[in-house]
Write a structure and sequence with these properties.
The chain is of the alpha+beta class. It has two domains: 9-211, no CATH class; 220-326, no CATH class. Helix content is 47%, strand content 7%. It is built from 14 helices and six strands. It has helices at 20-31, 41-50, 64-81, 94-104, 126-143, 145-151, 170-178, 180-198, 206-211, 220-229, 255-258, 271-277, 287-301, 316-326, and strands at 9-10, 61-63, 157-160, 165-168, 247-251, 266-270. A four-stranded antiparallel beta sheet has the order 1-3-4-2. A two-stranded antiparallel ribbon has the order 5-6. A hairpin with a 4-residue loop joins strand 3 (157-160) and strand 4. Helix 3 (64-81) packs across helix 4, helix 3 crosses helix 5 and helix 4 packs antiparallel against helix 5. The protein binds zinc ion (ZN). Zinc ion is lined by residues 234, 236-237, 239, 269-270, 272-273.
């Protein structure tokens, strides 16, 4: 890792005016090959920030926990499920050790030499997930947060290892919103090149593994809450729904853009609507409907941990809709 990793805090200078060139520099510097990366952690860190772009609070702060929850999930799936090495050289790296140990310590794996069928992160118990996230956070906050701050010449964010938060520079935050999809693609491309270098097998579809490393398949818990709270009809076409797998849990703003699972972005839909909508934006006239629906969730289930509305406001969905369109998600699906 580059210099700066041992800083305990750092602050961007709010008086400094960043030109478009300075902003480009932050990211080209992250992607440059000036020093050969020994690990993929900076790519993982950037992905975790991009995946959390809509979870910032009013000061644009993100907790280490929010960032490294994504990081841990992504690395579990890449390293253990897809068996993709994330370090150059003989060592497998500390993150691998943390994950591997957690997997070996599961009661069902005790005593087995090697278990090849690793379950996805989302299927681990909450208790195991929390422990892994806490160990990954300790390791990454030690080596990654200060190094990337320093690589960006202090322009990307402020951070404090004491309060365990980073606060994005507002100018950089706006830049990330405008260019999210493009930066994400460049990040995957550079990460995939790194994986190609350090992994022997080249038959893997690296880009797909990276993109899907935080995609969840089991959305039953969300289906259950929505089904309990709302009328049993498709959010889009109004067709009656049953409490079963034919009722789809749809990401209102497509998952392929947000890369996150939040209840406020989920609706229940019939399979026909869900499949034909795919990763297109929903009709504009449904925005008001979902904002109203979310007010009801906020009222009724504010304390439910799945809902996570700490950073959600009435503006979140309309804003996200606009930003998705700027990023090239400009196909609007029409429900017929
Ligand atoms: Zn429908």
């Amino acid at each position: 890792m580059s210099s700066g990793w041992d800083l305990s805090e750092g602050h961007y200078d709010p008086r400094r005016i960043l030109t478009e060139e300075d902003l480009n520099d932050i990211f080209s510097c992250l992607f440059s090959n000036k020093s050969k990366n020994t690990t993929s952690y900076k790519f993982g860190f950037l992905k975790s920030i991009l995946d959390n772009l809509y979870n910032v609070d009013i000061n644009l702060s993100l907790s280490f926990n929010a960032i490294f929850s994504k990081f841990a999930e992504s690395y579990w799936n890449l390293v253990l499920v897809h068996k993709l090495k994330q370090c150059r050289g003989a060592s497998s790296g500390k993150i691998y050790d943390i994950l591997h140990e957690a997997w070996n310590n599961l009661p069902e794996n005790k005593g087995r030499l090697e278990n090849n069928n690793v379950i996805p992160f989302e299927s681990l118990s909450a208790e195991v997930q929390v422990k892994i996230i806490s160990n990954v956070t300790k390791e990454c906050s030690k080596y990654v947060v200060g190094a990337i701050y320093s690589d960006s010449k202090g322009n990307f964010y402020s951070f404090s290892k004491k309060s365990k938060t980073i606060t994005l520079n507002p100018v950089v935050y706006q830049y990330l919103l405008r260019h999210k999809t493009m930066i994400e693609k460049v990040n995957y491309f550079e990460w995939a090149k790194f994986l190609h270098d350090v992994n022997e097998s080249s038959s893997n579809d690296y880009l797909e593994s990276l993109d899907y490393s935080t995609k969840r398949n089991n959305l039953d818990a969300y289906r259950k809450i929505l089904f309990e709270e709302f009328e049993h009809r498709c959010f889009y076409c109004g067709a009656p729904l049953m409490d079963d797998r034919n009722t789809h849990v749809d990401h209102f703003i497509p998952w392929s853009f947000v890369k996150d699972d939040k209840l406020w972005n989920f609706v229940l839909a019939c399979s026909r609507c869900n499949e034909s909508k795919n990763n297109k934006l929903p009709p504009r006239d449904k925005i008001e409907k979902i904002v109203d629906r979310n007010r009801i969730i906020l009222d009724r289930r504010a304390s439910d941990s799945l809902i996570d509305t700490r950073t959600y406001t009435d503006e979140t969905i309309p804003h996200l809709y606009k930003v998705a369109a700027i990023n090239g998600f400009n196909f609007v699906w029409n429900c017929v």
